[in-house]
Amino acid sequence: MKRFSKEENSWVLYDWANSAYSIIITTAVFPLFYKAAAENAGVSAANSTAYLGYTIAIATFILAMLGPILGIIADYQGFKKKFFTFFFALGVTATAILAFIPSDQWLALLICYTVTAVGATGANVFYDAFLVDVTTEERMNNISSRGFGLGYIGSTIPFILSIAIIILAQNELLPLSITAASKIAFLITALWWGLFTIPLFKNVQQRFYIEREARPVVNSFKRLGKTFKEIRKYRVVFLFLIGYFFYIDGVGTIISMSTAYGTDLGIGATDLLIILFVTQVVAAPFAILYGKLAEKFTGKKMLYVGILIYIIVCIYAYFLETTLDFWILAMLVATSQGGIQALSRAYFAKLVPKNNANEFFGFYNIFGKFASIMGPLLVGATAQITGNSSMGVFSLIVLFIVGIIVLMFVPEPKEVSVPESVNLN
């Protein structure tokens, strides 16, 4: 494989940048911080986990509603980076604001977290769509997987710094409270995210686009209905999105609620942080490995492998009892979480017309985000009804089973003829 271009490296580096948000805010420090705040306010463990699930559902619902509309507008020349910039700025700013919310205001924390999630997820919609602008179809599996791999590696640096500050504060080796140390972690996240996004701003441009026209917003709404019809004509794209809807739901739910789940099982905060750190380290080479294996065995077969591993994760989670069990579960997740996301992104990018990439990635987003509403709600409701968080995780197994069945009917991208552009006007 030839050397990576400046555009490819700059695009990949955004995974390095925003993965700090994924591990510190979505997965590790913030959930622990929120769970402690809710517990101090008298909220039960099961209810606080459920409220976190509902909050994630609200944030993803907002993006699901906005995704197709923003995607259509962003297909016009010069719009993609503007939308990316807006959501990036929203996410970074709200993440920094988390550090200034009083720790006893658990509801305010959830509201601000919702804004950070909207910003981070919204920026990712346009970041994913930039994949068609920075590389060729033949290199997409490798570039997408490399992004996730470097993201895991990059996230460990601010994560180590953050947990070091928290643990030192916890052991009174720093003149800080655990609350203050956690808030410093939020600021570190915002700084890391912002700093390493600069290369993307400088070097990545929208190469594929639709020419601008009068009243772009009005015309975009007119095109929205036609896009719904058009995407149904793309039977392969529609089938893939249905399968993706189910399996990515389970993936995202396990990632976003793993820390709250571990807390409910009685695993200590320090143990959880160490487990999550090792998960990031293990996930990095596996994400890159998925890209390499996809070149040899095809992306579809490697997606099968990833989904089957997640089915095992759901079954194993039901019998979880000890910290060792959680370690084993985390390592199983680490082998596939990056690979399944990277190959899904590359698979979809190969199926859609490049000039309309944002438009189709808008639907990629709406399917993924509506799925992300269902998963947390399923876990939250099951946990509240049964009083058992393990049952909530186990309930996700149906999503993976349906996802893999639908994916069986989706052909390989090389078997599909995809035009560079489609006229939806």
TrEMBL record:
GO CC terms in record: plasma membrane
A GO molecular function term, named singly, is: transmembrane transporter activity
Q: How does it sit in the membrane?
A: Multi-pass membrane protein
| Residue ranges occupied by any Major facilitator superfamily (MFS) profile domain in the UniProt entry | 236-425
Which UniProt keywords are present, listed alphabetically?
Membrane, Transmembrane, Transmembrane helix, Transport
Instruction: Report the domain of life of the source organism.
Output: Bacteria
Q: Where are the transmembrane segments?
A: 12-34, 54-76, 83-101, 107-127, 148-169, 181-201, 236-260, 272-290, 302-320, 326-348, 360-379, 391-410
Identification of the protein by name: MFS transporter
